[in-house]
Amino acid sequence: GQNIDQPTEMTATEGAIVQINCTYQTSGFNGLFWYQQHAGEAPTFLSYNVLDGLEEKGRFSSFLSRSKGYSYLLLKELQMKDSASYLCAVFGAGSYQLTFGKGTKLSVIP
Amino acid sequence: GAVVSQHPSRVICKSGTSVKIECRSLDFQATTMFWYRQFPKQSLMLMATSNEGSKATYEQGVEKDKFLINHASLTLSTLTVTSAHPEDSSFYICSARERTGAQTQYFGPGTRLLVL
Question: Which of B28, B40, B8 has the alpha carbon at shortest distance from B105?
Fold first, then answer.
């Protein structure tokens, strides 16, 4: 089966750095995605990791450790518009269906 | 990045009627499209996987006769909610998977369905 865990809610201050963790237990692994979803809108793609290590893309970085079943999304220089839910999603083996975590609701405060 | 459109964005219908939602990949070909449903404050739940030219694969608990999926071309999939009931009111989101590269899924903007 597939099991993906991430914190339900987080709060951080504008201008700060926040790290959102995701742990997964899946039958096989073909990659991990992070998506951002603002309330009432569809998810938008942020990052994709299939190999161990850090992928940096502007203010957002994503890290993967396959041996630990662990990923994190790092957001730097937080802005108010970063307040959203962040979804961790995994491709299992033999399938390209994404399994989503429940999402982490991030609130950025002044 | 790749663009996926969805139409309509909002629909209100009477109980017992059918509603069709279209999902199009605008600048890439998608052999596989996915249909999700999301209830308020909950995560996305996969309903079905739609492959071009073949029958859709439905997730457990999703009625295939109620949620009709057609994937007629590499850029278009449709979801028809037949005989809609108030409990079908939800946010329906499609995604399309690239054929090459990372095979990232890109999401449409979603369709908010309200059944009265």
Answer: B28
DSSP state of B65: T
Which tokens in the block code for residue A32? 């991990």
Question: What is each CA distance from B26 to A30, A44, B54, B102, in whole angstroms?
Answer: 26, 16, 21, 18
Instruction: Work out the burial of residue B50: count CB atoms within 10 Å of its CB; fewer than 13 is exposed, 13-18 middle, 19 or more buried.
Output: buried
Q: What are phi and psi of B86, to 5 degrees?
A: -55, -35
Cβ of A97 within 8 Å of Cβ of B46? The answer is: yes
CA distances (Å), B101 to each of A48, B1, B5, B24, B98, in order?
A: 11, 13, 21, 20, 7
Which residues in B lie closer than 8 A to residue A39 (C-beta atoms)?
Answer: none
pLDDT in tens, chain A (110 residues): 678 999 999 999 999 999 999 999 987 888 899 999 998 888 998 999 999 999 998 999 999 999 999 999 999 999 999 999 999 999 876 656 788 899 999 999 99
